């Protein structure tokens, strides 16, 4: 497999940290930021504007964001679950914001405490405001393939979200997430192929989890279907709270190695990336994840 270059977006400082048992101190986060930048990483999720009472590990997101935006080579983003988070991100000077909504009702209700329709209704004015303020909004669609509550996700559930967001004329990028890591390559190939055909003006990214060890195979399939942006977390940190005991994200190191071995440019330095991964691996163990509710 050879072909066009890819972008690898590192999510260690957001998704990689969200399940850790103890918050990572700010100085260690900034050390990881240094190491990732030295390895050639340019796009990073550096935190999330959520309630510090619920997720104390992100209480310093504004500080990490300030450090990242001071580095001209970087394109930092922050994840937000709602309008309040978006407003906080704008106030903190975020150049890119990731708005998350689930394709499945069960996961959206568990994760965001609202219906998919309520999330979409709040998203529409946010898209307009992001465009007016010159902020790049990346729409992250969780459970785009499978849901721990609702089972397999039909394409139309994903397209329902994309159709609404595309109406605004402000959406430029959407990332489809295999949130619980149950997708197979044929599913990744089919969804990305169908999405690219239906929304030719959108840039698509893939956020893969490695629960069943199929993350890299799914990434290859998504690339074959036209996807060119891929998320990863150093040392494979992270995961989904609704997939208890599962592995985390596909590692940034493995994603880079996959493409480089096939002659596809990533812009990343493998040795420096491995060093960054060693820093991430010292961040601690995940907290105990509660079991799924009875179906």
TrEMBL record:
GO terms for molecular function: acyltransferase activity, acyl groups converted into alkyl on transfer; hydroxymethylglutaryl-CoA lyase activity; metal ion binding. This is Hydroxymethylglutaryl-CoA lyase. Residues 6-274 form the Pyruvate carboxyltransferase domain. Belongs to the HMG-CoA lyase family. Belongs to the alpha-IPM synthase/homocitrate synthase family. InterPro entries: AIPM/Hcit_synth_CS, Aldolase_TIM, HMGL, PYR_CT. Transmembrane segments: none annotated. The keyword Isomerase does not apply. The keyword Cytoplasm does not apply. GO terms for biological process: ketone body biosynthetic process; L-leucine catabolic process. It comes from Salinarimonas soli. Signal peptide: none annotated.
């Amino acid at each position: 497999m050879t072909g066009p270059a890819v972008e690898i977006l590192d999510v260690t400082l957001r998704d990689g940290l969200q399940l850790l048992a103890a918050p990572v101190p700010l100085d260690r986060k900034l050390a990881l930021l240094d190491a990732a930048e030295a390895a050639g990483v340019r796009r990073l999720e550096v935190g999330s504007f959520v309630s510090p009472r619920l997720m104390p590990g992100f209480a310093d997101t504004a500080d990490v964001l300030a450090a990242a935006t001071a580095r001209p080579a970087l394109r930092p983003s922050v994840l937000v679950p709602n309008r309040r988070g978006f407003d906080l991100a704008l106030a903190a000077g975020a150049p890119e914001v990731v708005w998350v909504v689930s394709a499945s009702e069960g996961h959206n209700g568990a994760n965001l405490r609202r219906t998919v329709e309520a999330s979409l209704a709040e998203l529409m004015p946010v898209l307009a405001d992001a465009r007016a303020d010159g902020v790049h909004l990346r729409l992250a669609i969780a459970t785009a393939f499978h849901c721990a509550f609702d089972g397999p996700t039909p394409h139309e559930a994903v397209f329902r979200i994309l159709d609404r967001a595309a109406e605004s004329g402000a959406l430029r990028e959407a990332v489809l997430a295999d949130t619980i890591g149950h997708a197979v390559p044929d599913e990744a190939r089919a969804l990305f192929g169908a999405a690219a055909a239906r929304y030719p003006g959108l840039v698509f990214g893939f956020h893969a989890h490695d629960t069943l060890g199929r993350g890299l195979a799914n990434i290859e399939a998504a690339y074959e279907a036209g996807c060119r942006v891929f998320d990863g977390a150093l040392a494979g940190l992270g995961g989904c709270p609704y997939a208890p005991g599962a592995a985390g994200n596909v590692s940034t190191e493995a994603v880079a190695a996959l493409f480089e071995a096939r002659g596809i440019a990533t812009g990343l330095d493998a040795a420096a990336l491995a060093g960054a991964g060693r820093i991430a691996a010292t961040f601690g163990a995940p907290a105990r994840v509660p079991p799924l509710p009875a179906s």
